[in-house]
Amino acid sequence: NLIARSLASGRRYTLCAVMPRFAPGEYWADFEAGIARAEAEAVRYNVTVRRFCFDQYDRSSFESLLETLRREEFDGAVIATLFAEMVEPFTRELDARGVSYVFVDSDIPACNRLAYFGTSSFDAGAVAARLLFDRLDPGADIVVGRIVHRGDAGSNQWRNREAGFRSYLEAHAFRGRLHYAALRLDDEACNGRVLDEMFRENPSIAGAVTFNSTCYILAGYLAARRRDGVRLVGYDVIRRNGEMLSAGVVTALVAQRPEAQGYRAVMALCEWLVEGRAPSKINNMPIDILLKENIPYYKNNII
Fold first, then answer.
1. CB neighbourhood size of 297 (10 A)
2. Strand order in the sheet with 205-210
3. How many alpha carbons lie under 13 Å from residue 24 in its C-beta half-sphere?
4. I need a surface site. Which of 100, 103, 165, 220 has the fewest CB within 10 A?
């Protein structure tokens, strides 16, 4: 029915996918693979998908992209909501234009989105806290690895996960301290100096966490310094994280099926635009927990 209706109308639809730039093997590469899979199916409904990418660590990059999008014509949008404070006013413009949009990565309930596809960020933070807390003395300290952003304090996803993480620790009599390490993506020497000083000044550190897919940065440091006693939990089954998990440096990874998010977001817009069939407003993905023992059997692209 969906195909017949779209072919009979003769109308063509254009979707835009707003997401961070990526390299092969990174988290957003898996997300784009889901977009591509949905696009291959959507062509039958006269639907095409255009990609618009930004630097997820640079606020100005997203601002520039929004200016570009204001000059573009499209019927629907899939939006990664990293910079929530800029996404909200932009979606009000889309509302005024009558453009439907779907959120991925993290939700912004205040917006009039057609649907959200992703995990509960708060609960994913609580899961990471439990994975660490169950393996630590309640008085042990924890390092929180935080990638330096240009012009912003961090992503919407990061803040929501941190809130869930802190909430769990507070509810379970955590007596240690959280130490925030400002890390850089491509500066191993700088990261080494920052972490060396932090561990030297805080010998009770026994845990570590990152709230995005850069867990491999902390893992590389722990492996190089032979800090075998530090338990590390991170997010996303990208190649470098998976290698560190398999090697036993990372204790656990929390995963959220990015390919499924990309695929389902595009298909939901197709069904809405072509057939008028609205998806469920909230579509939470499973929060997967990956350990050294089960990662060989995990398929990230579960649709």
1. 7
2. 178-183, 141-147, 205-210, 231-235, 252-255, 288-290
3. 0
4. 220
Verdict on whether the full-model pTM lies above 0.70: yes
Q: What six digits make up the tokens of 49?
A: 């998908």
Contact between 270 and 45 (Cβ < 8 Å):
yes
Q: Which of 29, 110, 39 is nearest to 76 (CA)?
A: 39
| CA distances (Å), origin 33, targets 24, 25, 26, 82, 265 | 11, 11, 11, 19, 12
pLDDT digits (tens, 9 = 90+) for 242-297: 999 999 999 999 999 999 999 999 999 999 998 889 999 999 999 999 999 999 98
User: Distance (Å, rounded) from C-alpha 252 to C-alpha 266?
Assistant: 30
Give 235's strand partners: 254
User: How many residues are listed for the chain in this entry?
Assistant: 303
- What is the spatial distance between Cα 133 and Cα 294, in angstroms, rounded to a whole number? 21
Q: Which residues of the chain are modeled with pLDDT < 70?
A: 1-9, 149-154, 300-303
256, 298 Cβ separation under 8 angstroms: no
CA-wise closest residue to 79 among 162, 2, 148, 157:
157
